[in-house]
Amino acid sequence: MENIRERIYLAALLHDIGKFYQRADQGSVRTSKHLKEHCKDESSFCPVHAGKYTHKHVLWTAQFIEDFVPVFKNLLHDEKEALFSSRDSLQGLAAGHHLAMEQLSEWGRIIKEADCLSSGMDRSSTEALRDAMDETETTWDAFKRKRMISVLETINPKQVRTYVEKKDWSHLPVHKMELSKTCFPGSNFETFPDYETLWKDFKGEFKFIQSNTYRAFSETLLSLLLKYTSCIPASTIHFPDVSLYDHLKTTAALAVCLYDYQAEGGEGKNPFLLIGADFSGIQSYIYQIVSKYAGKNLKGRSFYLRILSDAVVRYLLKELCLFQANVIYNSGGVFYLLAPNTEFVRRQLRKAIQTIEKRFFETHGTTLFVAIDSIELSKEALMHKGNESLGQVWGKLFVKRDRKKSTKFASLIETEYASFFEPLMQGGDTRRDSITGEEFLPGEPIIEKEDLSLKTITNGQIEIGRKLRETNLIVVKEGEPLPYWKNEMQISPAQLGFTYYFLNNADLEKMKDQLRASADKVSVITLNGKNGNCDFLRTIDGINNIYGLEFYGGNETDMRNVPTFEEMCKNDNFSRMGVLRMDVDNLGNIFQNGIAPERATLSRFAALSRSFDFFFSGYLNTVWRETEPNRSFIVYSGGDDVFIVASWDVAIKLAERIKEDFKLFTCKNPAFSLSGGIAIIPSKFPIMKGAEESAEEEKLAKSHIIYNVRDECGCEKNAISFMDMPLNWEWEYIAVKHLKERLCDLLKADKLPKSFLSKLMNHYANAGIVKHMITRPKTYWMLTYDLSRMKERSSDESVKKLIVCCIHEVCDRDKGTLGGEPLRTDYHALELWSFAARWAELEYRKDKE
Q: What is the pLDDT of residues 325-336, one digit of tens each?
């Protein structure tokens, strides 16, 4: 049957769309205003248990396909047969997946099995059918009031508490995706979920998908499902922490894999391959710039790495004949794919890896490398049977992938021996790239720009950094570049066969007719949507191209006022720049051990990955927009980390806001924390050196541990570090910040002499502190003497109280307070008082009139 593989993929994407439609319906099967009479025939698609029909949402799936015949008509050329007339029609495949195996066709069984594998349970078992009886007529509307629990709240790497024991879960609002707190988990909702409005909006956009190819239609639909179904629980009968989107996506990926596996004979016990990749050399590559245009080049280089990763994924999908749903995760230089374990895929994967390594080496030498490896995955691991869980399989892939990093370019060394082991650089007065410092090779083109000499790729990255300020659309062309956009900004990462264009809506409008003739070969990707509204499909009416939505941190900039780093940090009294870097702590452990083995499903892993991408690639734009955007600049935000340049005080505000919002986003789950470092440097200090210093600060935060003897517990990471002082967010930073603010208030009111700060810092410098202990005992009496005299000279009671508090806390090691507030830390009080004084001095100098 023609296009059956593509039809299976589309049917799998739509198989549970009826759950969405049913919840938007005001009636039951009998009283529904949407179900036509023949779709109310439960015997057509519903299974039977104990004499009653179950899983009635499939009736709305069948009705959905009938409702949108005009949308499907260009796609399904033989309309009657393809849509309705058989079990292999789109309707039959999508709506029949709960029927017994003997009632299904060969292709229908594939979708049924993929549905079970995605959810990690046998939906045709007696237990599952009995649970499904909750959808009987007597309780038919109860499921419409249930909301989804965020998978992030269930993560527990230590497995101390099972997910069943917790009762006060937070829930996601039933809302289309937006890059705002509107989509954050919450509690105490005043109204029931409004599925009706959400469904109406979904239908309004679905009709814009007009395509005559399965791939363009299905891939566009996948992005639309992301927008509308990522907040809807896939199941309200079982624990509702998997979204309908993640379930539909992973079911489609599994269905394609099962089809390919069976088509090749289906030999062996492991029908799937989990493919993982990780880029190495990213940090050194991004920061390998030394001169002018540093900001634009930083931005351009970080985005170049993003599209380079995207190009590798697209190349693998093309070579392995897979779909976007097969991409489990792709962000931050890491990606995972699900593929069938067939001889074709194994052979093509080996060839593809060799080609990718060769193209990388030709383009970047040994600077950049992507370690790609795979591991077999069984049905038993997905169904929680056998001896190995999905988390353990994932852990083994981590090990294989990381081992690959230690043998970089192994496949090329024999054929490219001279390039690896014979000197290529000439040294001496050889001309070099003015930005990166790299030598020009003989015959390599040199681009002269102003007073700079640039390599082609360096110039392209600078142009990307400049163009991103006005870009809200990325057009990706597979194969030969588009002839009508030859003058537009474009780049082909590593010559992998994909050209990326950086455009806006006006650029697209000029060429909409030509674009409509490029189905399957052109993807039009919207970055974030206007102000994070995630709108992407109405760009040019969605006709005959693949339309998608992706998140990107930092493309929102006011073109009328783009400040330089110096302008961003300008202050008449005290100008300093802050370079902020943050990322999630223990992320590898979270992925390997965070989901209990009995609950480890492919859809949950996909949801976990997607959640990080939403927050760091998408929502960070909202944080930036709401936190003095004219004084900060997102260089990179994606995967699980952030790199921001800002005025030093704004950098601290941003770090604190990101930490607080991440805490809310993860439902205050203690399994998640962020650590970061801020380098505070002069505004004209080389940004690359600032990046190195912030990396060192981040290392201090990552290695920071506090231990409290009284509580008999420790706390590691979860810290922010600046001015060489790591502080635990919960137990140290808050207390030090309060003390800093108290000092600033007294300084600004001219009550506290500035010498108080300098004396504290001098005594700290002379105390000889080793492992948080004062090794020079005279510090105690000298500090007491100095501060006591200052107290006698002061007439302000608040200052006297502050000085007495400082003396007592410094001299009493076991006091356990800072500025009178409870404190849990290993630091000596003098360390924290001195740090608060340094911080207060910076604030005072900045705000001095």
A: 999 988 888 899
For residue 165, is pLDDT > 70?
Answer: no
pLDDT, one tens digit per residue, over 554-593 is 766 554 456 677 888 887 778 899 999 999 999 888 888 8
Segment 461-478 mean pLDDT: 85
Query: What pLDDT, on the 0 to 100 scale, is given for residue 161?
Result: 47
3-class SS shares of the chain: helix, strand, coil, % to 5: 50, 15, 35
As a whole number of angstroms, the distance between CA 647 and CA 668 comes to 29
Per-residue HEC secondary structure of 366-397 comes to CCCEEEEEEEEECHHHHCCCCCCCHHHHHHHH
pLDDT of res. 713 = 60
Q: Do residues 624 and 658 lie in contact, with contact meaning Cβ atoms separated by under 8 Å?
A: no
Helix axes 829-847, 797-811, angle to 10 degrees: 140
Rounded average pLDDT over 384-411? 85
Largest Cα span, the chain: 96
In angstroms, the first-to-last Cα distance of the chain is 79
Residue 714 binned pLDDT confidence (cut-offs 50, 70, 90): low
Triad 570, 574, 577: Cα angle to 5°:
60
Q: For residues 202 and 24, is the Cβ–Cβ distance under 8 A?
A: no
Cβ burial, residue 237 (10 Å; 0-12/13-18/19+): middle
- Dihedral sign for Cα atoms in the order 525, 531, 533, 539: negative
Q: Using 50, 70 and 90 to split pLDDT, how confident is the model at 132?
A: low
DSSP state of 615: I
- The H or E element that residue 751 is part of is none
Asked if 594 and 671 count as a contact pair (C-beta separation under 8 A), the reply is yes
User: What's the pLDDT at 235?
Assistant: 84
Q: Please give the Cα distance from 174 to 191 (Å, whole number).
A: 11
pLDDT over 70 at 124, yes or no: no
Tokens 């500035």: give the residue. 754
Contacts of residue 660, Cβ cutoff 8 Å, sequence gap at least 6:
none
Q: DSSP 3-state assignment of 327?
A: strand
Residue 275 — φ and ψ, nearest 5°? -105, 130
Question: Residues near 604 by Cβ (< 8 Å), separated by ≥ 6?
Answer: 151, 241, 242, 246, 595
Dist. CA 153–CA 358, nearest whole Å: 43
779 and 766 Cβ atoms separated by less than 8 Å: yes
Are residues 358 and 239 in contact, defined by beta-carbon separation less than 8 angstroms?
no
Pairing outcome for strands 369-377 and 447-449: unpaired
What pLDDT is attached to residue 559? 44
String of DSSP letters for 423-490: -----TT--B-TTT-PBPPTT---EEETTEEE-HHHHHHHHHHHHGGG--EEEEEESSPPGGGTTS-E
Q: Could you give the CA distance from residue 725 to residue 837 in angstroms, rounded to a whole number?
A: 13
Q: Quick check: helix, strand or coil at residue 647? A: strand
Residue whose pair of structure tokens reads 């008999």 in the numeric block: 712
705 pairs with which residues across the strands? 716
Q: Give the C-alpha separation, 672 to 378, whole Å.
A: 30
Confidence at residue 175, expressed as pLDDT on a 0 to 100 scale = 93
**Exposed, middle or buried by CB within 10 Å (0-12, 13-18, 19+), for 225?**
buried
State the Cα–Cα distance between residues 504 and 483, nearest whole angstrom: 18
The angle at the Cα of 685, spanning 683 to 688, to the nearest 5 degrees, equals 120
Of 94-103, 129-138, 595-604, 743-752, the poorest mean pLDDT is in 129-138
Considering 279-283, 484-488, 560-564, the range whose residues carry the highest mean pLDDT is 279-283
Other beta carbons within 10 angstroms of residue 365's beta carbon come to 16
368 neighbors 281 (Cβ within 8 angstroms): yes
pLDDT of 18 strictly over 50: yes
- CB-CB contact of 699 with 677 (8 Å): yes
Distance from C-alpha of 75 to C-alpha of 147, rounded to nearest angstrom: 34
Nearest Cα residue to 179 out of 530, 479, 418, 432: 530
Q: Can you give the pLDDT at residue 134?
A: 47
